[in-house]
Input
Amino acid sequence: MNRPIGVIDSGVGGLTVAKEMMRQLPKETIYYVGDTARCPYGPRLPGEVRKFTWEMTRFLERYDMKMLVIACNTATAVVLDEIKREMPIPVVGVIQPGARAAIKQTKNRHIAVLGTIGTVKSGAYEKAIKATDSSIDIYPIACPDFVPLVESGEYRSPRAKQIVSRTLEPLKKTPVDTVILGCTHYPLLEPIIADYMGADASVISSGDETARGVSAILEFNEMLSENERPEHRFFTTGSTNSFYSIASDWLGDLDLNIKKIQLA
Amino acid sequence: MNRPIGVIDSGVGGLTVAKEMMRQLPKETIYYVGDTARCPYGPRLPGEVRKFTWEMTRFLERYDMKMLVIACNTATAVVLDEIKREMPIPVVGVIQPGARAAIKQTKNRHIAVLGTIGTVKSGAYEKAIKATDSSIDIYPIACPDFVPLVESGEYRSPRAKQIVSRTLEPLKKTPVDTVILGCTHYPLLEPIIADYMGADASVISSGDETARGVSAILEFNEMLSENERPEHRFFTTGSTNSFYSIASDWLGDLDLNIKKIQLA
Output
């Protein structure tokens, strides 16, 4: 089934999920929408997040996608259940996969969740983790400064290092051995976060596990593609130049098909 | 949905999958069937493997299982598609998850598959891996002596070491960086296999990834259990004593509910 898989995010963060999908599922075609013009979603009210996420979903519907990945934790927390219920195709988010990977990884059952204000407020990770294993302790940390750092391309700067240290400082007194990057933008800050947390803590990106989940569901439903030369497409509501700069850096691909679009 | 998950295998090997499921999904109840009396399945004709696997499936049907895991590579290769098609519940095997984990792991795209004669002959791993990524090279090795070693409890003996070295010798001349344990019995030999392959090769057990896949499918279908105290059951067609000895060693649990049954 060679129809594209839709991947949607508030901006460039979902590219961390798309990259893992391209690596683990090299025959799948990805159509990516980044709502960069209205990023970040984290501090927005749920009603807005819901509306914007549906707009991205409706936009991709015209391309006859076979599956939708909501590659944004904030959007997953707010509207995954509703979109899953209403769409006739498989829809997956990034929270359950991140929770799953962390449950597998932790040895002492103390897990930190880094997320946007919206994601942390929703309690979605706690819910997902406790649904599987009630004995795990969760330490949520809102990191409102991380997404702007990434979207502005400053994710390797000394300032990024400062902000990460300041934000994660409360974790130093805890026994956490596993840290969930509960926002798809954060993997771009992963080297700095891993460095700050030290070698004893595992840092979990949901992209990796989401790609595995997508693979499991495609295979289970016999929907894998047989296309040897998939042609990905990228749509952004913001500047194609700044999208290109981060996307080509992150994906290691200079030949990207990017188009500016309007939603709403 | 607190109904049990059925796990079936030719013998004790599927316990490596069950163990990972218990760890990653501690609220799920597992009903395990090991057809020890007719183990190994590896050298048997497909018609026999098909018949025996259906017998285990029919046996578990009376317990109203919500999902079935065919935790035996030989049975997965022969009859997964048919059972999946005919049963009204989700059915998963262990080959696709093992393939998925290996694709994620390999860096140089050279993967060895260790399996029974039946699994190697079926070409099921090649098919699963190539379906996802055609550029990967596969090195299949039939290991007919491994299952008897495990079922007899000799999986830590010097003899086990000798047999592993002799069987895997052809791999020493290849560039493989990832080895799939393509039989659920083999994880009990994993320390010896990993030691022989050296630190540069990754050894993949499908149990780990199968448990993740089960988790993904339960969550996707909203079928997770909320049972805080699941009571697992184990059924064997062979001696309960030798089943107990390996199961309690492997699961680290001395209080197991094991019952001898007859199939066929």
User: Anything to note?
Assistant: The domain at 5-93+208-260 of chain B is CATH 3.40.50.1860 (Rossmann fold). The first helix of chain B runs from residue 15 to 24. Chain B has eleven helices and ten strands. Chain B touches chain A at residues 23-27, 90, 92, 96-97, 100, 103-104, 131-135, 208-209, 211-213, 215-217, 219-220, 224, 226, 228 (CB under 8 Å).
